[in-house]
Structure formats: structure tokens, C-alpha cells
């Protein structure tokens, strides 16, 4: 998650001024799947941010607090987010600022998180994608296979931790375990067959994914066939 989306200073020209100072907690994941040419977004975040503020006529006396957002996900509209505001001390100034954040700060936080969701979807849309699950790759066939079965190269592609045992019966996990399965067949420089599932699918339900790799004169042709995807 690009935390700069919610770290922009927020100053309100009313009876007080507050700004977000730090993202204390950012746990979760964001995954984009391409299914039959349609992009499906899955994101789920648990956030806690720190803020500080002061009354308009008390610039030298800053109060610190936090805001907890436990349910930023595709299942909840940004306008319906649960945002819990708290302050680090108890006094009249802190009470006023807490109320101020409830009335105005929550709206600004939701707006910034809405910008994150928009950016996630815009940045994830490729220039073009193929519904026939066929791609021409301008590298040699052996390099294509390595890019699909070597842990460091797969991590570079997925931009996250990967578990990968590239052998028959070996396990793999991608995107924080959201995608996982095992290798069924490995034919050097020709084919990879995997049992593949999403953690959101029915229990123990696997699809079969076959990558067929063919060397052409000036490129490598990769065909992907996936069967057994649940409705």
C-alpha cells in the first residue's frame, strides 16, 4: 500500500487545525486478478494513523492522538468506513480536538483513502491484456521458464514474499498466501502444470493451470490454460 496517500498534511481552517503525522500500522494486502479479460480487485487493510492538532488560538499547545481504520476493503464503501478517533491525554483542549476530528478529520481521512482506492485501480489497469491467455515474450524459452520457477525472479514479478519449491509435488504461495498450490508436472523448457487455488474459493477446491512454452524464431510463445475455476 502506498502510504503517501494518507500522509498528506491536513489543515482545517476552522476552530482548530490537525494533521496526520505517521502511519503507525498498515497490515493487509491488495491483489488484482485478471479473469477472462476482467480485472477483479481484492484489498483488505487494517490501518492506524497518528495525528496532532491544536486550537486556533493555542498554536503552541499541540495534542497528539490516533485514528484506527480496521475495515478498508472492497466490501465496504469508503463513506462507510469505521474510523475510531482517540487522544493521548485528557483535558478540555484534547476533548475539543477529539470532537473536531470526529466532525471534520474523519471526512478528510476517508477522502484520502478513497484516492488510494482510485489509484490502485488506475495503476493496475494494463495498457492491453489478452483474453485468450496467450502471450509472446521476447526472451529465450529457458529464460521464460526460469522467470516462472525461480523464487527471486517470481518475487520480482509479484513484488512480495514468495514460497516456491519448483519440483513435482513442491508447494508455492504467492501474494501473501492468497494464491497457493503445488506443482504437478515440470517439463524442462516446455511445460509447467500446477494445482492452483485462491484462499477465497471453497475449501480444498483446486483448478489446474498449464503453462505451455514454445520457442519461435524471434520470441517465446506462452499459452496458459486454467480449468476448474469455481463460478
TrEMBL record:
All residue ranges annotated as the Activator of Hsp90 ATPase AHSA1-like N-terminal domain in the record: 10-123
Membrane-crossing segments per the record: none
Entries under InterPro entries matching the protein: Aha1, AHSA1-like_N, ASHA1/2-like_C, START-like_dom_sf
Domain of life the protein comes from: Eukaryota
SMART domains given in the database record: Aha1_N
Alphabetical list of Pfam families matching this protein: Aha1_N (PF09229), AHSA1 (PF08327)
Family: Belongs to the AHA1 family.
Protein name per its UniProtKB record: Activator of Hsp90 ATPase AHSA1-like N-terminal domain-containing protein
Species this chain originates from: Timema podura (Walking stick)
